[in-house]
Amino acid sequence: MSEYWTLPTLDDRAIWSVRVLDAASGAPLLEHNQDTQCETASIGKIFLLIEVARRIEDGTLQLGQRVQVPAEFAVADSGILYRMRDQLLCVDDLALLVGAFSDNLATNTLLHLCGLETVRMVAPGLGYRHTALHDYLRDERTPDLPWTPSFGTARELADVMLRLAAGDVHSPAVSARVLDWLAANADTSLLADSFLVDPLAHVDADYQGIVLRHKTGSTNFARIDVGHVSGPAGSVAYAVAANWKNQSADLRAPVIDAMRAIGEQIRGHITGRPREE
């Protein structure tokens, strides 16, 4: 860990996995239990987007190809597609909904299109042993279903964001397309809250020249934020995950406070500037 970085107080009732990398050198700036595997809620959708982008680039899928939402994988909660009157959307728009709103129904539609078993192998195919998308999104996860929709470690999740930014996931074109979908992410409530970007409009550089590409995941016992963020003074790839599944208390407040403290250090590092009052 760099002497210039300080790990904030992490509530010990939660399981944590933290890793922050300098994007230019790949050197770790901050880390804590980076190889601890956590349930990562929606984070595994990144690997679905990678597979969709790969198929678009090789011609297997077409951007404008319209896809019927499968009735057997109907799901609500995260996203807006389940509330839309016209749900017959094209591949590109479905992927954009996943990137922008972590849309569960759009996710399940694209998962059905690509095949769950195929998408499960995307992360292992990239060399990750402890991180993957594991199942469809479900309104209820009963004991007979896979234990989690996705799982991962901070080491591997920070690495995939580093590689996406470097154009090193399959190809520069695939990497750029995934990052373009993630650029629309409207959830800046976790670590990225410290960057002070406009949640609904940060495709281009925003506050203090910050460019953010990230994905979040939330459940009633988990908060995860992984991303790549750049500013005039540098770039960082990061992954912070916290789980408190077996706790009676809801730890989202102390968990998000710690995430924001890490985010503030990242913001100062990439901008070289204090907050502007």
Short summary:
With 277 residues, the chain is an alpha+beta fold. The protein has helices spanning 45-58, 91-101, 104-114, 116-120, 122-125, 154-165, 172-182, 252-271, and strands spanning 15-22, 28-32, 38-39, 66-67, 89-90, 132-133, 150-152, 211-219, 222-231, 234-243.
Distance between the termini: 30 Å
Rg, nearest Å: 18 Å
Give the strand content.
15-25%
Order of helices and strands: EEEHEEHHHHEEHHEEEH
Large-scale geometry: globular
Would you state the CATH class? Alpha Beta
Keywords: Hydrolase
InterPro entries: Beta-lactam/transpept-like, Beta-lactam_cat, Beta-lactam_class-A
Pfam families: Beta-lactamase2 (PF13354)
Organism: Microterricola viridarii
Report what the structure shows.
It is built from eight helices and ten strands. With 277 residues, it is α+β, with helices and mostly antiparallel strands. The chain has one domain: 3-Layer(aba) Sandwich (Beta-lactamase). The longest helix is centred in the last third of the chain and has 20 residues, at 252-271. It is globular. The model has no long low-confidence stretch (mean pLDDT 95).
